[in-house]
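lol ok so funny story. i was supposed to be doing the assay writeup but got distracted and ended up predicting the structure for this chain instead. priorities right. anyway since i did it might as well share w the group, maybe its usefull for someone
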Amino acid sequence: MILYPFRKVPAIVLISMAYGYFALIFALGNRYQINPDGVAYLRLAKYLSEGHYLYSISNYWSPLIIWCFAPFLFLGVDGLITARVVIAVWGLLFLWGTWLLSNRFDLSYPFKSLAGLIAALTIAKWTSAIITPDILIAACLAFYFYLVTDADLVKGKQKAFLCGMAAGAAYLAKAYALPFFLIHFPVTIFIRRLTSGRNSRFPLGKMVKTLCFGMMGFSLLAAPWIGVMSVKYSTLTISAAGHKPEPYAIHSWEAPSDLAYKHWSPFQSFENFKHQFKVCLKNAAAIALYFGILGGPVLVLLPFLVLTGASFIVCRGSDERLSPLREMYTKVYTLGII
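and the output, tada:
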């Protein structure tokens, strides 16, 4: 009876309201948190809010979160409050992106709603952890994955173009998205063509056209920023390159790429390789234990989820011979959420 007034309200609305409540609680509990990266982002945003546009350009720090901070700082809002509000808003976008992406899985509406509620709690906690653009790139990539897994991706230029724009926004959030998109998008289109079946296989020309429109959408957002950085540093610049902090910088972390780091490679020696391998295993275990209450079993299933997840996504709705694989992955995915 208590839930009766909400029976006709869409689940995503209720989940968004729950997210807002969770995000507020976590933000209040962690409102004084500050980290070195956060100081750098807020400092560069302050430059922008004061009209020092050239000062705000950095080839080390990606610009999207800086651009989002700047209007609040211009209005005199406290930096820490600004960070919490901006990241929380992007967390909501991330939640909506994951909700859309969940449509690609054969989940019943109750299970989908439960997954959305769990995502709301997890994302809300994430938004208050540290000041970072991780939430921003996650939101952009959630929408990218939703678009790139559309069954009609290669049937029209609009969806491929939107795919590219989502990836371009992700690049502005973090430079990692550029090599990721340049590899993932063509490979996804190629695999989709291979698995579409002989009778329904689209021609090579259509695949090339889809790739071109995707790259155009990406370039629309990424190219101007690359151009601005290249002009400032007098060389083609995509991401961090060694340079000393500018004279106007108040601390070296505004341009940390030229600090005296000790460079090493896991291939320099067997000990280095063994250390890097242990780090990878530790990170994999941390991811598995964080996202699942099953502990050890989740760690065992992690390689299976990674390997079959891509196949499930790109092959959805194409080759019927893969339907058992899709069904098995859906069950494991649902089990992991619960």
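The chain has a mean pLDDT of 79. DSSP finds twelve helices and no strands in the chain.
back to the writeup now i swear
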